Structures are given as structure tokens and as C-alpha cells.
């Protein structure tokens, strides 16, 4: 099983690479960092087996919590 810190970092990397329709970054570094901490370590551990970091990042982006 992957380390939760590595998993969270991968989520952050995906959030930082997200672009809007014009190709601009969708989130600032601060907003991406805040969003990557939306789930607790335990919540991430519970879902790591079922969701890729990319899926979690997409879920966070779709939730509109930015």
C-alpha cells in the first residue's frame, strides 16, 4: 500500500496541473494545497484501494470547493 503522504502529494500534483478551457491553471498553489487537505489521512487511507489520486483530485475539482 502506498504511503498516505505520497498519495496526497500525487493528488496535489494533479490539482496543480489542472487547466481551465483557456489552458490557464485552474487553481493557485494555495488553493490546490488547501483542496488537497480536504480529506483526512484516515479518509484517504480508506479510499486508496478504490480511488486513484487522479480520481480523488477530479472529485475535489468537481465538488467546487476551490
Describe this structure in words.
Helices cover 61% and strands 0% of the residues. The chain has four helices and no strands. It is elongated. The model has no long low-confidence stretch (mean pLDDT 93).
Strand portion, in percent?
under 5%
Average of per-residue pLDDT values: 93
> Helix fraction?
55-70%
Described by the principal axes of the CA atoms, the overall outline is elongated
| Whole-angstrom Rg | 11 Å
Distance between the first and last residues' Cα: 29 Å
What's the number of extended β-strand segments? Answer: 0
The number of helices is 4
Contiguous uncertain segments of 5+ residues = none
Structural class: mainly alpha
SSE pattern, N- to C-terminal: HHHH
Sheet bearing the most strands, described?
Answer: none
Amino acid at each position: 500500500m502506498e504511503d498516505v503522504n505520497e498519495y496526497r502529494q500525487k493528488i496535489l500534483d494533479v490539482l496543480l496541473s489542472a487547466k481551465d478551457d483557456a489552458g490557464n491553471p485552474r487553481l493557485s498553489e494555495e488553493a490546490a494545497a488547501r483542496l488537497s487537505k480536504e480529506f483526512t489521512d484516515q479518509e484517504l487511507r480508506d479510499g486508496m484501494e478504490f480511488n486513484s489520486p487522479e480520481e480523488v483530485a477530479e472529485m475535489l475539482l468537481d465538488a467546487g470547493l476551490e
